Amino acid sequence: MATTLTTTAPDRTTEPRAPHRPVLRGRRRRVNLPAGVAGLIWLAIVLIPLYWILITSLKTQANYFLSNPFTPPTDPTLDNYRMVIEADFVRYFVNSVIVTAGAVIPAVAISFMAAYAIVRAGNRSRFLRAVNSVFLMGLAIPLQAVIIPVYLIIIRLKMYDTLMAIILPSIAFAIPLSVLVLSNFIRDVPRELFESMRMDGASEWGTLRHLAFPLVRPALMTVTIYNGLSIWNGFLLPLILTQSPTQRTLPLALWTFQGQYSINVPAVLASVVLTTLPILALYVVGRRQLVSGLTAGFSK
Amino acid sequence: MTTLAPPVQRRSSEQTSAGGRSGPVAWLALPAFLMFAAFGIIPLIGVLVLSFTQWDGIGDIHPAGFDSWTTVLKDPGLVHALWVTFLIMALSWAFQTPLSLLIGVYLATQNRYREILAVIYFVPLLLSSAALAITYKALLDPNFGLGAGLGIPLLQQDWLGRDNLALGVLVFVVSWQFIPFHSLIYQSGVRQIPTAMYEASEIDGAGRVRQFFSITLPQLKYTIITSSTLMVVGSLTFFDLIFVLTAGGPGDATRALALDMYKRGFQANLMGPASVIAVILVLVGLGLALLLRRLGGRDATESQMEGV
User: In this complex, is the C-beta atom of B116 within 8 Å of any C-beta atom belonging to chain A?
Assistant: First the structure.
C-alpha cells in the first residue's frame, strides 16, 4: 500500500466550502462525456476479473478447462472452498487476526497518546518537537529498505518465527502516518475545551480520555481501518520473519498454496476469495470510514 | 500505558505553571517514540552499518569496509535494477495519472449512481498484493487462462514469459489496484475548486475542454503533485506484487530494486550487498520526494508545515 507519503495536499479546507456544493451540483449536471466513458470502461476493467474470480472458484477443475471462462458454472460446487479450508486456512486466518489485532490496537493507542502530547505541548517541549520530526521523516522510510536490520533485531530478540516478530515491526511502521492523521484531528478540537478541562482540574490523562478520545473517535476509526488493512495484507514481514507453516498469515499462505496447486486454478481462486471475504464484509459495513481511512492524510 | 500520568497529580497540576505541565504530557509520546526508534530509526542506521559488513544472514557479522559497495557499484545488475525500477515508475505514472484524473473529475459530482461506481472501484484496493498477483497469474496463463479459454489468440500470449509483456502486465496490475485511490484524491481536489471560477469562465464563453485545461488542471496542481509523489515513491517499494507475479522474471526483466535487495540478501545470503541496495533505495526515495516537493514550489512546503 502506498503509505510512504511525503507531502500532504495543501490545506484548502479553510475556504468556505458550504456555498460551493449546491452550485457545483448544478454545474456538473451537464454530461461530461470523456470522463463518463473512462469511468464506465474502468468499471468493466475492474469488474471482469472480479467476476471471473468468483465464478471460476465455483467450478470443478475439469469443468474449468472445458467451459468458456465467462459462463457461470452449470453446477456450482463448493469443493474448492472445502479443499482450501482443509489446507489449514483456519489456522492462517486465526494467525492473521492475531497479528492484525495485536498490532493495530497498540499502534493506534500509542499513536493517539503521542499525537495528543504533540498537539498539547509540541510548542513548549523540545523533546516533542524532535519526536514529531522523527515521525515525519519516518513517513519516508520504506519498510523494504530496513528489513535486513529488522530481521537481525528479531533474531537477536529470539523472536524469529513467531507471530510477535510480525507484530512488533508492524506496530512501529503504523505509527508515523497514524500520528500525522490523529494530530491533525486533535488540532481541530477548540482550545477552549482543553482550557475548561484544565480549569475543572482534570489531569492530562483525564483530558485525553474524556475530551480528546470521544471527539477524535472518527479519526481513530479511520486510522484503525487503514492500518488494519495494510497489516492484514502484509506480505514482506511474514515472508522474512517466519518460517514454519504454523506461523503463516493469510497472504503468505495464499502464496504457498498457489505454489502447491498452481494447476488447480479454481482452488487457487477459492483461496483468494476466502482470504478477501473478511475485508469485503468489513467494507460493506464501514465503507465510509474505510474510504476516508485509505485517503487519510492525503486529501485532508 | 496505565503507568503514565497518574491521576494523583490532579491537585498539584493546578498549581504548577504552564511550562511545568509539559513534563507529564511529553511522557505520553514516549511509547510511540521508543517503538519507532527500535524498529524504524535503529534499523535505518543499521542498514548503513551493515552495508560495510559481511554477513550471510545466520552466522557472525564481520566488518568488510567498502567491499560490498564496490561489488554492487561495479555490478551491471544495479544499473539494470535501477532501470527496471525507473521504467515501472514512469510507465505506471503515465498510465495512472490521466485515467485517475478523468475518473476523479467524473466522480466529483455527488450523484447516487456515481457513488455506486465508487463502491465498486474500491474493491481492488482491498485485495492483498499476493492475492492480486495470484489472480492475474492464473488469468494470464497461456495454457489455462483467459486467452486459452476464450480462444482469442491475441490474449493467448505468454504474458509473463516475455520481457516487455511482463513489465506491461506489472504496470497494468498496479494501475488496476491503485487508480481508484488516486481518483479519490483527485475527486476531493476537484471539489475544492471554487465554482465561481467556472461561472466566470462560462460568461467569458469558455467551453468544457477549455475549462478543464485552464481551470481544473491548474487548480489541481498540488493535488497532482501529491498523487504523483505517492505513485513515484510508492513504486520504489513494489515488492509483494513483483515477487509473487514474476519473481523478477523472465530472466531479470522485472527485477526492480526492492526485489534485487531481497534476492541478494535472503536468497543469495549476501546481506552486505543487499544492505547497499537498501541504502540506495532510501536515497533514491528521498531524492525523488525532495525533487517532487521542489516542483511543488514554495506553497507546497508552506502548507506542509501547516500540517505539522
Answer: no
